[in-house]
Please model this.
Amino acid sequence: MLFSLLQPLRNLPLAFVDVETTGASAEYGHRVMEIGIARIEGGQVLAEFEGLLNPGRRIGPGVSALTGITQEMVEGRPTFADEMPQILPLLRGAIVVGHNIRFDLSFLSREFRIARLDMQSAIGDVPVLDTLRIARRRFGRGGNGLQVLSRRLGMLPEVAHRALADVRTTLGVFERMIEPTGGWAMQLADVLLAQGGNMPLLPPGARENLLPLELEEALEQKRPVMMEYVDGDDSRTHRTIRPMHIKRVAGELVLVAHCELRNAQRTFKVERIVGMMRVEA
Model:
């Protein structure tokens, strides 16, 4: 399908997408364990899909604590490639929309490669819209996580960190943000302008560092955050840290941070981080 920049959104198909993953980075071998998609046409939901997937690798304890998805829940489930007949029709020829969509696309691109498909060839050279980028241009950087943003816009989100629930929340956030400037009557060109321009479907660099939004913002701002963390005994703990940088140790992503409890530099496995909340002065 050819996309005219002058077409209103209501005349265009959109696919809202969210994935839950076994860890923080597709580059380091983590996989999709749940996918949610909503196909929108005429400004209305045409079809939805949600599926737990067998990722073929262990789910980290922090991820299970965050999402509620356990290893037992995905055992015996179909793989991403198995579900391709259900996934492709919802994505093909549609504008791809998500919150921090570059993160999701990095995982989807890898899953398509594992299934021996080129994602761009399979779904088309489609535009990409990111509700995070639209929010940052409107509200500034920081504090634009999906759950926080939805409440800022007057929404009560569904359960967080499950794929289809986050898709529905993203759709609501998108509608609230475009409503003042024309809603579904907005032209595609104006929505692209609202997010700061075009985005590529495929990540611009094979080794681009893409992290979950909360972690990315914490590293960017280098301000104290309250981190919920699953320790070596699988107990959930809370501690105030000041994030410094990410490094790779023995094939794992590790956060280097100043820990206020110890008043020392400490390292934390990224896959054990459940969440981060900014500490206000």
Notes: The mean pLDDT is 90. The beta strands are 14-21, 32-41, 44-52, 95-98, 128-130, 225-230, 236-249, 252-259, 264-269, 273-278. The first strand starts at residue 14 and ends at 21. The chain is about 30% helix and 25% strand.
